[in-house]
Amino acid sequence: MDNLLTIKQASVWASKHLGRDVTPSNISYLVQYGRIPKRGDNGRVLVDKLELQAYYRKHFSTTEDRWKQKLGQDLNWHLSFSDCKESERTKHVHRLHPYKGKFIPQLVEYFLDEHTDEFKKEAYFKPGDIVLDPFCGSGTTLVQANELGINAIGIDVSAFNAYISNVKVSHFDLEDIKAEAAKISKNLSEFQRQNNNAAFEQHLLEKLKEFNNKYFPSPQFRFKVRKGEINEKQYSKQKAEEFLKTYSKLVDEYNLQLRQPKEDTFLEKWFLQPVRNELDFVFEQVKGIENIKTKKVLGLVLSRTMRSCRATTHADLATLKDPITQTYYCRKHGKICKPLFSILGWWQRYVQDTIDRLEKFSNLRTDTYQRCLVGDSRNIDIVSNLKDKAPKLAASIQEEGVAGIFSSPPYVGLIDYHEQHAYAYDLFGFERNDDLEIGPLYKGRGKEARDSYIEGISEVLLNSKPVLKEDYNIFLVANDKDGLYRSIAERAGMRIVREFKRPVLSRVEKDRSAYSETIFHMKEK
Ligand SMILES: C[S@@+](CC[C@H](N)C(=O)[O-])C[C@H]1O[C@@H](n2cnc3c(N)ncnc32)[C@H](O)[C@@H]1O
Which molecular function terms from Gene Ontology are attached (predicted)? Predict the structure, then answer.
């Protein structure tokens, strides 16, 4: 029974399976023309996933076949986790805060747990061990280690990343979080009532609804664009300008100041004045919370809220272009959209989501210890840094040593790890260490950048050696297009004993090109 899918479900499944768009009408066609049997009940048309799979196997090469043709037969399809639902990849605390460049938790679990299979012939870690992640990022290794009863130490040069990681693995008083969050939400609603931004937004929404219903009816508008009956560019430009008159009138009527007086910092540039006022208001409330752990969780909720309330268009959320202060035509939604004038909605939503996620994780967690240190992994003294924060763990490292490393280093010239959270650095006033990032975006991917990358990553491995057990296992996940990891291992006095090649399927919508990353398994030379 589990394999029965509706036409819509089948189209979603088939699109994923084949790596191309399969519409519900494509599936209906297969049923109508008897290519696959109809398995309906009560007039509902259902299809059997296994029968659909068999049909595709016979008639098309699968995503797996095509990827293997491009990337080589040694691609370990098992590690694509293609069957793993989005909700599992982002389960419980893994989605407490956005972070670009995160692991799939299932990948970490695969290497840290004790199972073996046709590819992983031995277990590398066991409960009670200590694992190290010197590029901890948002703490995926720490969280998965906790689930598996393994202690873990993370290190990250970015203070905000360490903050995210430590919130994920901390123990909380959930009742206190709920009570403090409810208090802040109530005060924020009150604050809103005293200002006119909420009333303005409400009024604007009514006008927008009316206008969009008239000029951008859904789905007819998109349908006409597709058929070429409407020139989207011209039409939307004209209509966006038309609506701006209504918008300006409303702004005047409510006497709103939208821009902040200065634009020097991220906080000044990327938030409308009414949003900024609310952010400052909530931040003051969070600062006043007595319980330090509750304060940290709600600080993270505020940061997540902030990120969703930047003055940008829906299309530019991932890569900011210019701050916006007015309504605009949104291609993504096929209508006129607006920036945010209040944070209340997102704040309330993220408070609830965070509480739910912490609750879920608290039912799974083990009584083990995880901590992310802030520092440069090339030279941090791990034991002395841990001594005051976790004396027991520091002692066990000295006694038994760290079993190994599981980590994904930054790649050469790909992501700015501080800049992606510029808003949080501005708000919380964390010290930035951009200059200490290995392989930073601004250095590019040239020879000099690659050489300094090899040096940086091998220094991290060398700096970890004093805490590692003799027979350690190191796993580094990397997209080693430039073939740098042989030199890295060599410089660190290690040997690569095995390479697991995994396809990376869930890439951004725009870029569906075949791409794989390698998990290098290294040991002492
Ligand atoms: C690919 S990300 C790790 C993501 C992580 N696996 C996760 O699931 O969230 C690499 C991390 O290395 C950190 N990093 C870069 N240079 C570093 C250095 N010198 N010392 C410590 N961490 C560094 C970056 O701040 C970034 O968070």
Answer: DNA binding; N-methyltransferase activity; site-specific DNA-methyltransferase (adenine-specific) activity
Q: Which residues contact 209 (CB under 8 A, 6 or more apart)?
A: none
229 CA to centre of ligand 1 in angstroms: 50
Q: Specify whether the CB–CB gap between 439 and 410 falls below 8 A.
A: yes
Ligand 1 midpoint to CA 437 (Å): 8
Structure tokens that stand for 410 in this block: 């930054």
463 phi and psi angles, rounded to 5 deg: -70, -20
Q: How confident is the model at residue 468 (pLDDT cuts 50, 70, 90)?
A: very high
End-to-end Cα spacing for the chain: 53
Closest C-alpha to 341, from 324, 321, 322: 324
Q: Mean pLDDT of all residues in the chain? A: 92
The residue-averaged pLDDT of 90-103 equals: 94
Residue-wise pLDDT for 387-415, tens only, equals 988 898 999 999 999 999 999 999 998 88
What is the Cα 165 distance to its own chain's centre?
Answer: 13
Which residues, in sequence order, are CB contacts of 471 under 8 Å at separation 6+?
523, 524
List the domains of the chain with CATH numbers: 4-60 (no CATH), 72-161+379-524 (3.40.50.150), 174-357 (no CATH)
Mean pLDDT calculated for residue range 48-77: 80
User: What's the 376 CA to ligand 1 centre distance in angstroms?
Assistant: 10
